[in-house]
Amino acid sequence: MPFWLARDRTIQSESVMTRFDPRFWTVNFPRPMMAAVTTTAADALRVDAVFYTAGDLAGLIWEAEDSHDHSLLRYETARDFRGCRLSFRWRANGVVALDQVNGPVLTIEGRDASGAARAWYVRLWNYANGTPEDATITLDFAALDGGYRLPDEADPVWAGDVDRMFVSLVPPGFVERGSAALPAPVEAWVELSALRCEGAGAVIAIGDVVVPEHGLQIASGYDDSYNLTPERLLRNALLLGYRGRIVHYLGMSHFLRVEASSGGFYVSLAGGVLNVAAAAWQRDFAVRAKALGYEVIWSISYELFDAHCWSDWKQRAWDGTPALTGWDPPSCLLSPASTGAMAYLRAVAVAVIEIALAAGLAPKFQVGEPWWWVLADGRPCLYDASAREALGGAVEIAGVHAVSNAAQRDLLDAAGALLAASTAALVAAVRAVAPAVETHLLVYLPSVLARDAPELKRANVPLGWAWPAFDVLQLEDYDFVTAGDVAGTARAVAVAQARLGYAAAQTHYFAGFVLRSDQRAQWRAIAAAAEAARARGVAATFVWALPQVLRDGFVHFETEEDAVVPFDDVLFPLALGREAEVTPQFSTAIVTSAGGQEMRNASWAEARTRYDVAPGVRSEADIATLLGFFRARMGPARGFRLRDPFDFSSSGASFGASDQLLGEGDGVTVSFALVKHYGDAVRRITRPVAGSVRVAVDGVETTRFTLAAGGRVMLDAAPGVGVAVRAGFLFDVAVRFAEDTLSVTRTTFLAGATTSVPLIEVRE
User: What is the phi-psi region of residue 68: left when phi exceeds 0, alpha when psi lies from -120 to 50, beta otherwise?
Assistant: First the structure.
């Protein structure tokens, strides 16, 4: 699967945009408040926010350097704003007004004319014409002053080297560095319309690359993109070639409404389900996705930001340790036994599906990674108060790696049944408002089907999920992929499909993700895993996730060679015998100089073999078989297997596990391609005979492997550094008919003559 990690735009297509384009503003803020920015017109944006404490402050941000978009789509870094005049209409509600102390200030961060880092604070009211809630503001960056009162406190701005600028938005009663809860949450909005940027520096370049549509689809999440406009996010997805479905994970931290309690803030349904910022963002996202032709799969999980989660909602281990993830700050897993937690999830699911319906989207819903958490030391979190009541809770499982008796297995089975019942109730709640909803279940294979915890599947892959509990089973395995554990993927996929009864065509695959930017090399394995999933025949393959795609510059594209070449996995039906004609050929350009010296350039690394199988036609029955086989293959349109009478084994008539060196271990790789050596030349073997492959690791024959498509050996465990991996096998050659016509007559056959039946090897 071809891909590219693009660091910079060089010769790729560009266009221009006006600086301060509404699509490219962002927001940021401290918890617990929330804010979101959406575009309301080509020249307008809106910020929706909710404030909870006296110290809450949101920033509406413009950055001189685009650090959010894909490298091929970013706007030009332009730090000199002195040639710009920005004007807009300001309207607001729920924030301190323009004319008040702590009213909106434009903070400009950069360097002065001498290169010293500094910031300027430009009070917007000083440049406003109108009322404190509805005014036109004009900012000429060549003649701009900071300071509260002008001209007495004027602080001239030098806008020639700016990093970013942001407008501060605070609630009534704001106290700098305050932490006390406001008497009630304050819902606010700010609109900037008629945005105009004029002057010599008003226009900058922007990437305009359009990657052709390809076979991969994309997943993303609100927690990762809450600060961007939906229009900006979808622009990236569209121009990078992703079409069809988008899996949109609502997240676990930014959509929440919270209420003050006991010195903290906890999840609440007071006033609605989603906070006003998140609701505005999701509505805009849904409408824009629909307009671009996307289908959206809305995803929620059993995970919440720990600081806002009620104590009795959390899964817990035997000693009461909460089920916290490794994120910083941590999230926690909700107990399927908690009445409050599950009712809350059902309310959230209904809310997002109602947004989808309002936008005209076909309802699609994913239950994302529902599971009983297992702590790092193997202790399962089956023992919160609600779970103890539902499951009995008298049986302790000290570690999921050592489940040793029937009582422990019964507990895991009961936990699985409870988990399945909770997901069924979630699906039922969604179906009540959207009867035609398409339901999806996302399962994270490395955790729920770990090799060293075989009994865990009783709790975390319950039989209650078996088809048709969901319409689509979605499988995710990025720990296997990034570790090079191809065998782990193959094993876990097979177990999940067998246990739950979903065919390949009823499954989706999630490839990814790359956690940190210094792990960009993992994209190679991710691209290979996506290709392997498509070869398995899954209905859709998603890249997880869009924020990492943008950060690392991942570009997927397809070439003509990526199209699936039609191939029928059947053997040529006639025995060839020793009379068949076999002709290996190379393509070599030879240039002879005037002095008789030669320069030779080999175009092919391997020989391509031609065959004439006419000598295998020995009877009228053979003629009929040949003609039928030719028609079934549509002449040269479809490939098939051929047993080469002269070269069909790794080592002559007999073969052993140590015949051919496939490679050496590196402690990570488990996948080794079958090859045959001819001196220094190496031939890839893509069509081994089923059941014939024998493998030796470090000189010892092993059966701990599987054979994947394309002639790849997948070991159950990665060999150590320098350990030799060898194999012996029988193999066929992938061939096709060489011509569109086949001429075999009864007359010539009875006369003892044979016409030509040419075949040619297909390079795979």
Answer: alpha
